[in-house]
Amino acid sequence: MAPASAPGRPPALLVLADGTACAGEAIGADGTAVGEAVFNTAMAGYQEVLTDPSYHRQLVVMTAVHQGNYGIEAAVDESEAIQVAGFVVRSASAAHGNPRAERTLPQALAEAGVVGIAEIDTRMLTRALRQHGAMRAAVSTQVTEPEALLERVRAAPEMAGAELVSAVTAESAYHVAAQGEAVFRVVCVDFGLKRNQLRLLSAHGCDVTVVPASATAAEILALAPHGVFLSNGPGDPAAVSQGIATIDGILAAGVPTFGICLGHQLLGLAAGASSYKLPFGHHGVNHPVRNIERASIEIASHNHGFALDAASLPGSNGPHGEVVATHVNLYDDTNAGIRLTQRPAFGVQYHPESILTDAGKRLVENFVASCRPDRRVEFPES
User: Fold this and answer.
1) Structural domain contains residue 380
2) In whole angstroms, what is the distance from residue 189 CA to residue 171 CA?
3) What CATH number should be reported for the domain holding residue 298?
4) Among 22, 11, 38, 26, which residue's Cα sits nearest to residue 105?
5) Which of 242-256, 279-293, 303-317, 356-370 has the least mean pLDDT?
6) DSSP 165
7) Alpha carbon 168 to chain centroid distance?
8) Is pTM beyond 0.85 here?
9) How many CA atoms lie within 13 A of 292 on its CB side?
10) Which three-class secondary structure state does DSSP give residue 214?
11) DSSP of 273-311, one letter per residue?
12) Which among 34, 139, 280, 363 would be 20 to 30 A from 338, CA to CA?
């Protein structure tokens, strides 16, 4: 077996928008990647992170030291390609001990054309991002002078106001059959979905039609769905105007609706709430959430840089009636879940499809229960 770290890797440079510069070793492709730097606190799951469309145009800093230990296995991918703009790690293994893996982490990055950097102080980077907030950054194997790379960073657009859904959504509609008997017709609006969401819906008897984020409410309603699922995705929710308008039409039609992550935020915006950018976001697999209605604590997987403003949730005079908070993130008391009291619709800020979200299965079961024709006007306990 090859050594855990590869000797002779070419140099690479990382620069943050505040001028912080870190020299390290290149892993992956040759080139320059510019995006928003965020940190992820997961101890494992780097492949799920890499292939999550929510990370489009972001440079992900992993806080766990060792990455790549178990290689890359195609069956684990959450989308058809690596989605991150760049990958930042302390140590990237050049070998793996997984008999199912087809390639190493550096090989996968190189094949995908994604620039990465290793052998830098990720603890220092994480502290900087936590203290000063997520910020624009760049990783390069081509630009060797920090000042020159900093110019490119500061010329890059901010994440606030960025509409990125159109870059990751499906090009056309497609079908995912239910496992076993098809009990419900569900339309999934793809704002940047992860494959495990479709597996989870399919396992609960849902015959799923995935539609692009550009789909209108009329097009979705023409499919006569029992329910509509709103996926996760990248960017600023306030910039996804087509998605907000579509959800507004779905809510007006009274179709049961379940939104997660970006889909949750868009549901809230369509219902009259507002959103804002978090300082450094929530990116990890074990974040504590308080379920207000069940008076319980849940551990959940998160990946988002924006949130709904809890103070903006409308009362009974909202465009679709009252919206109540159902969950709160215990790290910073930000909103993590909503429910519409006059529409069969709810959302959570986290990922129920993750095996590390202990309440995920129950949330999907609640959504499926609301899809039953005889339960269309009743909302199940969240």
Assistant:
1) no
2) 12
3) 3.40.50.880
4) 26
5) 356-370
6) G
7) 12
8) yes
9) 14
10) coil
11) --EEEEEEEEEEEEEEEEETTTTEEEEEEEEEEEEE-GG
12) 280
For the chain, the domain total comes to 2
> Tokens at residue 125, please?
């980077």
- The CATH number covering residue 124 comes to 3.50.30.20
Phi, psi of 101 (to 5 degrees): -70, 140
**pLDDT for position 374:** 59
Residue 1 is assigned to a structural domain of this protein: no
**Catalytic positions, please?**
261, 351, 353
Per-residue pLDDT tens digits for 300-314: 999 999 999 999 999
C-alpha span between 98 and 366 (Å, rounded): 37
Residue that finishes a domain, picked among 110, 135, 155? 155
Residues 265 and 346 in one domain: yes
Answer yes or no: do 139 and 177 share one domain.
Answer: no
Asked if residue 250 lies in contact with residue 257, where contact means CB atoms within 8 angstroms, the answer is yes
Q: Which domain holds residue 120?
A: 11-155
Tokens encoding 252: 């007006």
Q: How far is CA 199 from the centre of its chain?
A: 17
Question: Which pLDDT score, from 0 to 100, does residue 7 have?
Answer: 60
